[in-house]
Amino acid sequence: MAVITKMRATGSALAGVLAIAALAACGSSSDDAKPAGLAPSAEQSADDLAAASALDPQPGSFLHGKTTVTQLAATTPANGDVNPYAVLPVVHLGGALGAGDVLVGNFNDKSNNQGTGTTIVNVHPDKSVTVFADIPKNLPGCPGGIGLTTALVQLKTGWVLVGSLPTTDGKIGTAGAGCLIELDPTGKVAGTITDPHLNGPWDAVVADNGDTAALFVSNVLGGVKDAGGKQVDRGTVVRLSLAQTATAAPHVTGVTEVATGLPVREDAAALVKGPTGVALDAAGNLYVGDNLGNRIAKVPNALTRTDSAGRGDTVSEGGQLAGPLAVRIAPNGNLLAANATNGKIVEITPAGQQVGEFYAIHDEAQHPAGNGDLFGIAIEPSGAGLLFVGDDTNTLSVLR
């Protein structure tokens, strides 16, 4: 049954707080750091910090007037996988995929070890849940095994691609380079995509032309295993040129690094931090959530460029941003970024102005101020609402 909670977006200390009852299986990856962009010397509670940075959604923003969160479903399947990361509304129907379905990928297994989750569940419009794919841990062609990340896209031909950043024990020392896994519309594995430029695929976005597509993938493992916990500037975003048909799984026809030198670092709670969300606008600009840089970067001419834009142009940094993870484009053309450290979703114009925020997750019993609980987000196909997962409760919810 859906749980509906009314929320008020105001600047008070209790504004926009959603308290969701924690489920038995918790898959959260907590982060104890104070939200970036705020005074680092301030000895304040998480609630004080959140209130101090509150920004009511401005009229005309996507978040303006959205105050109701509806919990759609629990995302933990029978095998106990937790820590939902990827959120993908289905738009191309066929096989096991129907109108209104939403796919959710799990990064952890029932032991809550990072990088060991193997399942993608399908949340149906009637709020029932089925398993779309349960991928073998020893899948040939995926270096290191299976740990499903936020890199989840569907192609016009019906194929579903999901990223894997695998570990055997939830520690960076056992992490493998991973791969992209190709699934047919019934959830059956059809193959894998590997490349020297794919190293810890973390998130993805696709520009799909039907028989060809440009797939952008952020990567977070470069140099991390040998850095001894220190930050290194070896995160990347690559563009994979794909050829595809409805009957043959996509194959790579070209690879270009469009962003390089992004900061990455091992993290005891989250496994690894680095460039995460990627979003592509109609003009071909690629936006990247630079998690450790606490900013949103832009890669111009991402569809056509033949070289790297380095770290990209800074669109917005600090302010309400607090370790941005997933980044998506709202129907009004603004950017939406999911904060890692405080459970907020921040809206930003293409010019970089922060025009609103929504306190999507706040679970005092589990992680005060939503620390580490918000990850994947997605716009509903209708454009009406924003889908998001809660790692604290292993659930999918929608904001309208």
TrEMBL record:
The keyword Protein biosynthesis does not apply. InterPro entries: 6-blade_b-propeller_TolB-like. Residues 1-24 form the signal peptide. SUPFAM superfamilies: NHL repeat. It comes from the Bacteria. Keywords: Signal. Transmembrane segments: none annotated. This is ScyD/ScyE family protein. It comes from Nocardia stercoris.
